[in-house]
Amino acid sequence: MRIGKLMSIVSLILMLSSCGNDSISQIKNSNFCDGSDLSFEDTLSLKYDSEIKWSKFETKDGQDIVEVNAKSKKGKTFMMQYLIKTTASGKIIPKPGYIEIDGKKSNFFGLLFLCI
Fold it and tell me: Within 13 A of 115's CA, how many CA atoms are on the CB side?
């Protein structure tokens, strides 16, 4: 069962690295769950139906970060940060870096609840 979850995470990273040229658009429009036609933003909006905000910023050490903050009408919250790497050829590769669910740090397996 854990291998299946790990494969889902790996496929998410691969899908994110293969679409779009703007890092926010690339993450928003990536497929998230296997077998689903929904984008990551569409999947997120199923559980977090009040507000979804996207932002991009640079850390003090020059690392580009894309952050998504989402809130449900019931008060549930979700925050995720992606580290953005750009290859020498200009290809953007977003990598999930930090996740919070309801204000508590979560691991990457916490993302799988969006597919349920």
Answer: 16
Q: Write out the DSSP string of the chain.
A: -HHHHHHHHHHHHHHHTTS-SSHHHHHHHSB-STT---BHHHHHHHH--SEEEEEEEE-TTS-EEEEEEEE-TTS-EEEEEEEEEE-TT--EEEEEEEEEETTEEE-GGGGGGGG-
Length of the chain (residues):
116
Write out the two tokens for 107: 């691991």
Q: Which one has a higher pLDDT value, 4 or 1? A: 4
Tokens of 28: 């928003």
pLDDT tens column, 15-59: 554 445 688 888 888 776 656 678 888 888 888 999 999 999 999
The DSSP bridge pattern shows strands 92-101 and 77-86 to be antiparallel
**What does the pLDDT read at residue 18?**
47
